Amino acid sequence: MDIRQKIEQLDIKSLATPRNGLFLIFAAVAFVAAYMPITALRASGRSEYYSHIPLIPLVSLYLLLIRRKQIAACAVYAVRCGIPVLAAALALFGAGQLWAAALDKNNFASLIAFSVLVFVHGGFILTYGLKAYRIALFPLLFLLFMIPIPSAVMDGIIYLLQAGSTEFTNLLFWISGVPYMRDGFVFHLPQVSVEVAKQCSGIRSSLALFITALLAGHLFLKTWWKVAILAAAAVLIAMFKNGIRIITLSLLGNYVDVRILESSLHREGGIPFFIVALLLLAPVLFFLRKTEKEKHV
């Protein structure tokens, strides 16, 4: 059954229950609490890393909707389990407000968004119970991608992507036979020198590819370790894709026109290479899915 058929089968009236209404109240409170800190990231210089955030709750909502019958079948109020989680969320939110002056906008948004996520989980547990929570665990954990990554962690991820992209670029230059010299993150060609800077890490497209891999793995694979393999493959493919982009722009700048390195193709041409990454990821998913089908034959 495809996504369109599942959406068409949704009975909106069946969703209008007091239990669902209570959870929507929890979700609405969470949204209001997280809105200002996350939107304030626009002035922090890091908002460009989080263009995916508005899509995350929509995906989680869809995943919850396709599990609504299983959730409803075992739903019970679990006040004793939900209240401690909600209390922990409020404590985290209070700590965020207390430490706001000591945190930059990114880390403040991270802490507040994390407290809000805990609040949503606590609201779900209180409203539907632990058994239903286990059924809804992936959609609720998927909301983790709404949390801005703490600055130190983000810097580490960017460096990892930068270093990996540099190694793939070096490999591609070597395969191409083009004369070059490497000095750390810098490649010297006959006419130009190109640095694989932090901006070349492809953090946005890499995050999008990683999220896509996890979602595809959850929907199409049955074993967690195969989902982990797909996610790891997405990271390597993201680095390889960055290497393809870097060597393409470098060769065009060296042999066609050096102005290409400062053109919109350099600054905004990531979409074609992201499509290449998706095309490279697809056979990995197909192979992993095929092994599962063969195992169950």
Query: Helix count?
Result: 14
- Radius of gyration, CA atoms, in whole angstroms: 23 Å
Averaged pLDDT: 87
- What portion of residues belong to β-strands? under 5%
**H/E series, N to C?**
HHHHHHHHHHEEEHHHH
- Principal-axis shape equals globular
Helix content: over 70%
The strand count comes to 3
- Whole-number tally of structural domains: 2
Order of strands, widest sheet: 1-2-3
Low-confidence stretches: none
How many angstroms does the end-to-end distance come to?
Answer: 20 Å
The biggest sheet amounts to: 3 strands, antiparallel
- By secondary-structure content and strand pairing, the structural class works out as mainly alpha
Task: Annotate the secondary structure layout.
Blueprint: H1 3-8, H2 12-15, H3 18-39, H4 56-65, H5 68-73, H6 79-98, H7 105-128, H8 130-135, H9 137-142, H10 151-176, E1 181-183, E2 186-188, E3 193-195, H11 203-220, H12 224-255, H13 264-268, H14 270-296
Antiparallel strand pairs: 1-2, 2-3
Helix pairs in contact: 3-7, 6-7, 10-12, 11-12, 11-14, 12-14
